[in-house]
Structure formats: structure tokens, C-alpha cells
Write a structure and sequence with these properties.
This protein is of the alpha/beta class. It is built from 6 helices and 7 strands, in the order βαβααβαβββαβα. α1 packs parallel to α6 (193-210) and α2 packs across α3 (70-88).
Amino acid sequence: MTKLLVIQAHPHIDNSLSLAVGDKFVESYRESHPHDEVIVRDLFDGPVPPLNDQTMEAWRKQKFGESLSEEETALLQQHADWLDEFISADKYVFINPMYNHFLPAEMKQYLDITAVAHKTFMYTAKGPVGLLNDKKAIHIQAAGNFYHNMDVNSQMALMDLGDVYLTQTMKFYGINGVDKLFIEGADAKPEQRQNILKAALSQAVVMAETF
């Protein structure tokens, strides 16, 4: 059975364009792929496992075979569960707003805990090689200004550092060609908000059917 993992990084607020379009994508995907399993990982519905002093100490103890406390054992198990869930998926949907030209901190931390050697990539004599080949991903992101689908000479796309980072991270894992669905300009042109949303919702339906 094909598994779709939806990674959602957005506060639980009303009138979110990225959540509305993401929900429409998932709804359309379920209708088009009725036999697929869909899992939603809401990064604001429970903390992403931390990468802190305790995590580093637990990893050190694990590496050298030292005894772990119950709390350290539970922490490492949480990391393992989230990583296993990520690796087991066949397709990924990343949903987030643009925060100051980047991803929300929760999304960045999620990518950090999935970047694990010998799990999502491995080091070789010729450099790192991704291990998640034959998987696919789509990035659904809302931004207040316009960054993409503009004049070919525009430099605005270079300011979307979050999408660049996510795309390169997926490539690092062996996933090439991340699909994009950008919902942009609702703050720059508030009078066009509903038209922007309507167009993005229609695009979500079409993209979900073939994803």
C-alpha cells in the first residue's frame, strides 16, 4: 500500500491559506487514491523531538554502550518513531507559511531529525548519497508577497530560502524534482485574496490527482 505523509507546520489559526490549500490537496488525493494510506503529522500538535543537550548525551551513551535513563530511552525512542514514520512513506506533502523568507522553526527541526546517516543518506568516498530514491514530494507554501511565477528576470525567487532549503534537503535524501504549489500575494494585494485562494485550490485538486 502506498503511504502519503503530510507534514504540516502551521499554527492552528483560522483563514490560513496554506492550511486551506493543503486540506484541499489531501481531500482530492484521498478521492483520487482511495486505497492509499494518508498520515498527517502536525508539527504544531505536539513538539518535534528536540535536538538539545539531553539528546546529544543520550546519543553519546548509546554509541558507547553506556546505560540510559528511562527519560533518555524514551527520548531516543521518540526520535526513532518519527524517523521510521518518515522513511516508511512513499510520498511527502510539506505544508507551511513562509516566515521571514524561510520555513517555520518546527519544519526546520523536523528536517534536522530526519537527516540521519545510514537512514536517509549515507557517506561515500564520492560524497553523501541519498537513500530515499523512488519517493516524491510536494511543497505547499503561502507567502504574503509574490516570489515565484513572475518575470524570468525576477530575483524574488532567490529570497525564498525556505523552498530552496527544503528542495535541497530532499535532493540530499535522494528525492529529486519536488513539486511546488505556491499561494502568494494575498498580503501584497489583499483585494485579490479570494481569487488567489480560489486559483490555488483548483491547482491543488489537479496536482493531487496525479501525485
